[in-house]
Design goal:
Elements: E1 28-31, E2 40-41, H1 43-47, E3 61-64, H2 77-90, H3 95-102, H4 107-119, H5 122-138, H6 160-164, E4 168-169, E5 174-175, H7 198-228, H8 233-241, H9 245-254, H10 263-291, H11 297-326, H12 330-344, H13 380-389, H14 393-410, H15 415-421, H16 426-439
Antiparallel strand pairs: 1-2, 1-3, 4-5
Length: about 450
């Protein structure tokens, strides 16, 4: 098959049979002794013992067929070539059209086989890496093509995920609106003519140079987004939450410096600090063991178990002392109950008064927003709403943006639509809806 490697599945691309001049279909016969031009025969002419000039019927021959597995069972060589041609015609990632063109495999089979054998195959990794290095060195000074490291999701237009991806269009590997989107407007009326004066000609060249610098800035920003994988923002945020709280704060501070270093260096920096944090915590634990006179890990396990029991007993004694201290004062007892409820909810108790409803039922204490992400983006009225509704700022901002987008799209918004859009407690949804109506963010339909 080496001599026929360039032939495709189309029979019109193969040389005709030397006996009957018909188009060859697999399997067919190739003479192993006649050459250098291939002497090909169909099965009918071969069985008749066709002879022509130097070709004799007793020559050695080869049976030419692609109906055999190459890379894995279940995929013949003919299907491998058809898959490569379909990917070339339809484009990488368009697996639905690739499967339709192949007709013998589903889109899941096409995608998994292509990724396994042509993308993630270790036999090709060194070759692809050398080709990529050669290409990068050759075109280092040219324009930077925007090719994301992994295939991002393809959301519908004007959906929440589409807005999170900043209008990115995966089929074109481009954005709906570029950075400095109207930079080309300064060039649309420029025309170089022979009768331009020297000053006018220099002015036009300066405008073109300015446009080139704006294009370079656009490409630089695209390169940062591509290298650091910022297309799928939610995936990026999920990776960030994997770190401890102290490392997350460092991650947030160092994010602004990611543009001056590569993604590998930036990730190594964060990972090294995460490792340092883990080591320091482990050293403090070992120092505590040494101070307690523990010399084996078996004793350390017993120490940790006894320590937890001691902490539980101390907490119970503290609660009992508080109850005995405030049991005579009803108002102080209510304040203590509010404090314990805040502790059980995992927030810092900061409210010293408790409101009692008309029915005599004690309401939940307001939420303390200190240190919660997104608090700095809220104004005073929004902070008060989040405290009363007991809603974290991040969730409130997401619900607010969803309601604003729906109101802008519909020209107004009803409470029923807001409740269908936000899947939380209906009373909280009503309070958020009434607040946005009162502040003028949205209008009633």
């Amino acid at each position: 098959m080496d001599c026929l490697a360039s032939f495709t599945n189309d029979p019109f691309d193969k040389p005709p049979c030397r006996g009957c001049s018909s188009y060859l279909t697999e399997p067919y016969i190739k003479c192993a002794e006649c050459g250098p031009a291939p002497f090909l025969l169909c099965l009918q002419c071969f069985t008749r013992g066709f002879e022509y000039k130097k070709h004799q019927s007793d020559h050695k021959y080869e049976i030419m067929t692609s109906d055999f597995p190459v890379l894995e069972p279940g995929w013949t060589a003919q299907e491998e070539m058809a898959l490569l041609e379909a990917v070339m015609d339809c484009g990488f990632g368009n697996w639905q059209d690739v499967a339709y063109q192949m007709r013998t495999k589903t889109k899941e089979e096409c995608e998994s086989h292509y990724m396994k054998n042509f993308i993630n195959n270790p036999l090709f990794s060194s070759t692809l890496l050398s080709l990529r290095k050669t290409k990068d060195s050759r075109f280092a000074d040219g324009a930077i093509p925007f090719k994301p490291s992994d295939d991002p999701p393809r959301p519908t237009f004007d959906s929440v995920l589409s807005r999170d991806m900043a209008g990115y269009m995966p089929a074109r590997a481009d954005f709906m609106e570029e950075f400095d989107n109207y930079a080309e407007w300064d060039l649309k009326d420029i025309d170089f003519v022979d009768d331009d004066s020297d000053i006018l000609h220099a002015l036009k060249l300066a405008v073109v140079d300015i446009y080139h610098s704006r294009l370079k800035e656009r490409q630089r920003r695209k390169k940062i987004i591509r290298d650091h994988g910022l297309i799928n923002l939610r995936k990026f945020q999920m990776l960030e939450r994997c770190y401890p709280k102290e490392v997350q704060e460092l991650y947030d501070v160092m994010r602004r410096f990611a543009r001056v270093v590569g993604p590998t260096e930036h990730d190594k920096f964060i990972e090294s600090h995460a490792l340092e944090f883990e080591l320091r915590r482990e050293i403090r634990r070992l120092q505590e063991y040494r101070k307690a006179g523990i010399k084996s890990f078996c004793s350390a396990k017993v120490y940790e178990r006894v320590k937890r029991m001691r902490e539980d007993e101390r907490r119970k004694r503290t609660m009992l002392n508080d109850v005995l201290q405030y049991i005579q004062d009803g108002r102080a007892c209510q304040q203590w109950l509010s404090k314990q409820a805040a502790i059980d909810a995992g927030v810092t108790p900061a409210v010293t008064t408790i409101t009692v409803s008309a029915t005599g039922r004690r309401s939940a204490p307001p939420l303390n927003l200190t240190g919660l992400p997104g608090t700095e983006k809220l104004d005073e009225r929004e902070k008060e709403l989040c405290q009363v509704v007991r809603l974290v700022p991040g969730a409130y901002l997401e619900y607010k943006q969803a309601l604003l987008n729906e109101c802008r799209r519909q020209g107004g918004l009803r409470l029923a639509q807001a409740r269908a859009l936000i899947k939380i407690d209906v009373n909280k949804t009503r309070k958020i809806y009434d607040f946005l109506i009162k502040e003028g963010y949205i209008t009633k339909a």
